[in-house]
Amino acid sequence: MTAIKSISSKPVNQKTFWLLLFFAVISLLLGEMPLFNTILAPLNQFETIVHELGHAFACLMTGGSVSGLSIVSDGAGHGGLTFCHGGNPFIYGQTGYLGEAFFGGALILLARFPTCSRALLCFLGTSIALCSFYFMPGVIFSQWQWQQGLGSLAWGLSMAAGFFYAGKKLSDKQAYLLLLFVAVQSTLNSLSGMWTLLLQSFGFFPGTWSDATNMQQLTGIPSFIWGFFWSLASLAVLGGTFFLTYKLDQRKQRRLDL
Predict the structure, then answer these.
(1) For 12, which DSSP code?
(2) pLDDT(6) > 90
(3) What is the b/e burial string over 103-129, where b = at least 16 CB atoms within 10 angstroms of the residue's CB?
(4) Which helix (H) or strand (E) holds 33?
(5) Pairwise CA distance, residues 49 & 72, whole Å
(6) Cα-based distances in Å from 166 to 8, 85, 159, 236, 246
(7) Which residue from 130, 109, 103 is spatially nearest to 244, judged by alpha carbons?
């Protein structure tokens, strides 16, 4: 009976917090190993689609339109591109990196509910499939980026199938662990992307452009300031999420002890 109760519809106790720390430490220690990076390639692509969808949805919500979206490198240092028209570029120009951070934080909080993990994995799979079919064909029919479009659609549908299959076939506990690992990787990848962005803003990758350089052209504020601001915001979201998870788990543990 104890094993069954530990995977209830309510949030688990401090095990969630320590698992978060364990996954974070393992990812940081192994993050630079080529084999580990190869294994985590699907999760890196997942983070790219979260980033680009952050731009896309913000553009749509501010009255613009999106003619295409890719999550495959174009060979010019861009892991993905979103082709926005109209809308408010001041808003959607920032929702790539900030969207990654908030998404990772939300996923960590949702992962505290083990029996919801399978449904959440299925939801992620379905959402990625719908977004892939909606946004990516525009790039496929582009004269210059049809290869990126096809590759992006293939990645998107593969990720969608993987999440949906996991949600259907894994046990509640296995789905909970997978979702928690994905959540940690999302937040860590967001911070890693910020570091690359800061280096790029300081001129370490000449000839490339980024969200920060776009914001510099739009506002006149130097790109490194945007990179620094987004980095601080991401750290605040990550730290706040870990703190909130720890506090909520402590409160749950106290109730169990009573």
Answers:
(1) P
(2) no
(3) bbbebbebbbbbebbbebbbebbeebb
(4) none
(5) 9
(6) 19, 36, 11, 31, 27
(7) 109
Rg of the chain in Å (alpha carbons): 19
83 DSSP β-pair partners: 68
For 120, residues 6+ apart whose C-beta sits below 8 A from its C-beta are 110, 111, 167, 179
**pTM for this entry:** 0.80
Which tokens sit at 6? Answer: 């530990």
Q: Which residues are CB-neighbours of 91 under 8 A, at least 6 positions away?
A: 58, 62
Contacts of residue 22, Cβ cutoff 8 Å, sequence gap at least 6: none
Paired tokens of 140 = 């496929």
Residue with tokens 């009976």: 1
Tell me if 27 sits within 8 A of 187, measured CB to CB.
Answer: no
Nearest to 7 by CA among 186, 234, 170, 209: 170
Q: How do strand 65-70 and strand 81-85 relate by DSSP bridges?
A: antiparallel
Residue for token pair 């991401």: 234
Q: pLDDT: is 253 or 79 the higher one?
A: 79
